[in-house]
Specification:
The chain crosses the membrane at residues 21-50, 83-104, 116-136, 156-176, 218-241, 273-297. It comes from Spelaeicoccus albus. Residues 79-294 form the ABC transmembrane type-1 domain. It is found in: Cell membrane. By secondary structure, the chain is mainly alpha-helical. The protein has a single domain (69-299), classed as MetI-like (MetI-like fold). The chain is built from 13 helices and 2 strands; from the N terminus they run αββαααααααααααα. Strand 1 (50-52) and strand 2 form a beta hairpin. Helix 3 runs parallel beside helix 7, helix 10 (220-236) runs antiparallel to helix 13 and helix 12 (259-269) packs antiparallel against helix 13. The longest helix has 46 residues, at 2-47. The two termini are 32 Å apart.
Length: 308
């Protein structure tokens, strides 16, 4: 009994030490999250109830900024542009990155170079990426514009035509992001025990059946992470602002004005910080709700796995 009690005390002390170590490891991130995310979010929510011009002039207006948002046609247009951007960007990047990860998972001559080339855009700034693509897509003189002329597309203005500008933006965003997401999927694929696939192969399962019944379920947590981060990036990330700012500045005719770019315009072009804060608050609340729904539906990426 005394020995058992001694082991129990030792186990309790060990758990307390591990708990303290866990708290110390989490503390720097927690402090950074509170200082640079939590407090600014609370301040933005407070500012959203004021009329603020950025020069120290504040006037309490209550819910007027939110009422203005409901009647603002440009706001709803930016919501529509953002929704189209999400629908074009998230699924294409997701499945393209997954397919590339499956293709480069196994070793073959030159696989390292292929992986490096696919990841290369991520080491560059999105502003640099935007400038490079601007040179290639500029009217009449751009390389891609001239190549399009050679195959009979004529003098297409990829960034100056309202019906083409958003699609062009999505293509550039997918090209920039797919390498990073490919490596996330590659990490998930590497973690799958090869014994499971060998067992399925012995049972006579073909390549598609092995992927669908073994690989895809075990890849669910990685898929959930990629899906949520892609959604957040498409709505509020650098793709939704940096590329828009460099390539189109929201044009032509507001065809590429995403919600983040619209918030930037309200704050820094028109000096309406209160309205910009209200737009930001609504966007953050929307993302929190969507993430919570995805978390509930997929059970944190475990989908059909048992709760325990």
């Amino acid at each position: 009994m005394a020995l058992r009690t001694g082991r129990g005390q030792l186990s309790a002390r060990r758990r307390r030490r591990e708990a303290r170590a866990g708290i110390l490891f989490l503390l720097p991130d927690a402090v950074g999250l509170i200082a640079f995310v939590g407090i600014p979010m609370v301040l933005a929510l407070i500012v959203s109830m004021f009329s603020a011009d950025g020069f120290g002039n504040f006037r309490f207006v209550g819910m007027a900024n939110f009422e203005h948002m409901v009647a603002d046609d440009l706001f709803w247009r930016s919501v529509r542009v953002t929704a189209l951007f999400v629908l074009g960007f998230v699924p294409v990047t997701f499945f393209l990155a997954l397919g590339l990860a499956v293709l480069v998972k196994d070793k073959f001559p030159g696989v390292g170079a292929v992986r490096a080339i696919l990841f290369l855009p991520n080491v560059l700034s999105l502003v640099v990426i935007g400038v490079l693509w601007q040179f290639m897509l500029v009217d009449k003189r751009g390389v891609l514009t001239q190549l399009g002329g050679l195959i009979g597309l004529g003098d297409v203005s990829w960034l100056g035509t309202p019906s083409l500008a958003l699609g062009t933006l999505i293509v550039v965003s997918v090209w920039f992001t797919m390498g990073y997401q490919m490596f996330l999927f590659l990490g998930g694929l590497t973690d799958i025990p090869p014994e499971y696939l060998d067992a399925a192969r012995i049972d006579g399962a073909g390549a598609w059946r092995r992927f669908w019944t073994v690989t895809w379920p075990l890849l669910a947590p990685t898929s959930f992470f990629v899906l949520v981060t892609s959604l957040v990036a498409a709505v509020t990330g650098v793709q939704a602002f940096d590329l828009v700012y460099v390539l189109t500045k929201g044009g032509p005719a507001n065809a590429t004005s995403t919600i983040v770019f619209y918030i930037y315009q309200q704050a820094f072009n028109f000096g309406d910080y209160g309205y910009a804060a209200a737009l930001t608050a609504v966007t953050v609340i929307f993302l929190v709700i969507v993430t919570a729904v995805l978390l509930y539906v997929t059970r944190g990426g475990r989908f059909n796995a048992d709760a325990d």
